[in-house]
Every structure is written in C-alpha cells, then in structure tokens.
Amino acid sequence: MNPHILFIAPSAYTLSGLATWLDYLLPGLKQLGWRTTLGLVEGTRYHRVADYLAVHPCESAIAITCKTGTPQGRRWAVQRAIQEYSPDIVVTVNIPDAIAATAELRSRGETQAKIVMTCHGIQEDLFADMKLFKNSLDAVVCTNKLACKLAEDYSSLDKSSVFYAPCGAPTRPLTPRKSEKTFKIIFVGRLEQQQKRVHDLPAILENLSSQQIPFHLKIVGTGPEEIRLRDRLSQFINSGEVSFLGHVPSHELWEKAYFQADALLMPSCWETGPIVIWEAMAWGVAVVSSRYVGSGLEGALKNDENCLMFDVGDCAAASQQIIRLYQDQDLSQRIKQSGWETINKKYSHPVSVQQWNKIFEQILTTSASTILPVNIDSGSLNNRLDKLLGKANAERIRIWLERTGPSCDPGGEWPHSWSDKQTSQRENEFWNIAQQLDRLE
Predict the structure, then answer these.
(1) Mean pLDDT of the 20-28 span
(2) Domain 1-168+348-441 CATH assignment equals 3.40.50.2000
(3) Which end of the chain is more exposed for a tag (fewer CB within 10 A), N or C?
(4) DSSP states of 119-187 as a string?
(5) With b meaning 16 or more CB within 10 Å and e meaning fewer, what string describes 87-114?
(6) Which architecture characterizes domain 183-347 according to CATH?
(7) Nearest to 341 by CA among 305, 309, 291
(8) Which of 30, 25, 18, 5 is nearest to 350 (CA)?
(9) pLDDT per residue over 319-373, tens digit each?
C-alpha cells in the first residue's frame, strides 16, 4: 500500500498562504503515489471545517474536533485521528498540539508515524516551538532558506533534520500586454500592519499623485486594518484611484487581480515567499518589493533583474521604483520576462511538489529517532475540575456534559504555538539574529 501522510492544519484561515499551499501540494503528492489526508482542526467558534472547505475543497479532508478547548481535549482529538487513519508521516502546520499528541503515541509505541513540523513564517514563537519540541520531531521543513538557518542557529536543531522546500505558483505562458495611460498596481494579502505594513500604501500613493503619475490600485484581501486603511485612502477611493476587492478565491485571482496589472506592490517587513510574489512573476506582472527579512538568503529577488526593490518602510523609494516601471517600458518588459523565468525554474507548482516529495521520501526511509514527549500541562493544576478528578477524568466529564471552552480568539481555540509569551528582549534578540543571517547571501 502507498505511504500515507496526514497533514494537520488550522481551518480558521481561508485567506492564508498555507491554504493555497495545501491546495496544490496534496493533489500533487497524490499524483506521485502518496495517500494524503488533510486533518483540519475544529473548535466551537473559529475553526470551522465546513467554512474552510467551502473556499478550499479537499476530497480527503477530515475534521479533528475538540469542543472543550483544553490541551487534553486537543491532544485526544489528534490521537483519535492518528489511530483511525494510521499515517506513516504526520505533518503539522502551526498546530503544536499535533506534535505533542503524536509524540505521546510514539513514546508509548502506539504509532510509528514520523513527526514533521513545517515552518511558513519568520516569527520568534515558531522557532521557540522548534527548540521546545526538538526531541519530539523527526524533521522540520521550512519554505525559506533564512528559516532553515534560524532553525539551526536559533532553535539549535541538527542540520540533518532541517529541510528546505519552497512554495510554488501556477504558471501560464508569458504574453505581451498593451501599455495604457493609467498604471495598474495591485496589493494582495492580509490587511494588517505588523508584517504586511499596509499603512505604507497611502504614503506611496501620495508620492505618485504629487508627481502626477496616473494610477489605479486594487487591494485584494481583508484584515484587521481594513477600516483604518479605507479611511486613510478615502481621497483616492473617492477619486476612483483605489478600489478594494475584498477576498478573492485563488481560482479567480488571475481574472480579477493579476490580469492587466502592471505591478504588484509588496511592502512587507518579513515573508517566507510570499506566494503572491511567485504568482505575480508567473503571470507576467512586474514586482516592486521591499527588501523584507527572508528575501536575502533566499536569493530569489534580484533588484533591477527580476524585480525592483526598496528598503522596508522607505515609501519614497517604493514610489520611485513604480515610476521607473511606468516611464520605462523596456525595463518593465525585462523585469517581467526575468521574473517569469525565475518562477518556472525554481518556484512553479511542479518544482515545489517534487521537492516536498523528495523530502518526504527521505524522511520515510530514515531510521526513527527516539521521541521524548513534551507536556505543557506539567505545571500546577488551575482548573477546579482538574484538581478534583485529574486531567483525564476531568476531560471525560467535560465531554459528557458537552462543555465548551471559554470565549477566545482562533489561537486560543487551537494554539498556533506553545511559545507565544515572548519577552520584548527575546523578540529583539530574534530579529537581530534574523536580520544578520539574512544579510549573508
């Protein structure tokens, strides 16, 4: 029988790059002979499998349901799925409870599944989790070369257990486009400030307007900063120079966003791809991007070759790069051609799937390491029912009484990491290390 991979992922985020990655990776691996199951975690409020599948259909999806909202309940939910589906590899995507649950079963001899953590972000808590779980993991797979280096240097993982596999984009033939008077710009991503720096957009547009550059910006995505961003861009919205498209399903992005676009604008602080840059390049759209943390060691973006770049937060420089594209058609065509070639060589769907396939094959054939489980509940008991009955019995009572957990956000319902209480000192140390490593390209 073909080897089986169980992916365990959040269901609360239908707009994320993680969902886009899973959309093409699972069918791609299936074509190469793997059996794949997508285990979507489910809660009572935010992680809703039906809502996720309405946007990202998957024929092999299952629900991993925990309604009590407790660590014990989450681990039991994962363990039930592992015991029912008997995977050869468990791949976790920002669900640390899945690592803990699988490691418990492995330590008791109740599964032989290899345990793999994937890393799709450059965030301190993710790498703190790697360090926490280093003895519970067979491998870590990162989608960015800086992330691989951080896994070794910051998380102290052995180099032999760290793998690199990039995300990919769909490709299409590169076709020339007729230039128009209005320069068409797109922004695609979550509307938030800390990573995506969406509040750089008004300053960039004000610079373009002051230099009388005719433009239209389409903003694709939603997020916590949307209302404030709309307010700051109100003059451009009223003039017809900015439009918000909201969430656009991935299969409609070409027609509604990338088609006829002259440039993708990416002002981010950090990225591990991002997939939207690979999509833009693959579909013949010039990229104007910040030198975000993650772009250095990766080495994919080459200023004045396959994109135009500016320093993070330098809105004046971003505007000037857009103006260069607007004024120089030869430069624009050269950037588009080189970007398209970059994706077809390194970041297409087939290239990405083959790399993930190669890594999973290697992990599957490597001798299993000794697994040491990590128990986040090893401290004092805070819940009265836990104190009275013990965690396992208390959880059985909650399930029988159909108790649900307290109101919380998606990360409280199913935590994204177990190391999310970092101090500012630790956060600063992490970013200093990340920035220094990323300059070593």
Answers:
(1) 96
(2) yes
(3) N
(4) E----HHHHHHHHHTTTT-SEEEESSHHHHHHHHHTS---GGGEEE----B-----------SSEEEEE
(5) bbbbbbbbbbbbbbbbbbbbeeeebebb
(6) 3-Layer(aba) Sandwich (3.40)
(7) 305
(8) 25
(9) 999 999 999 999 999 999 999 999 999 999 999 999 999 999 999 999 877 888 8
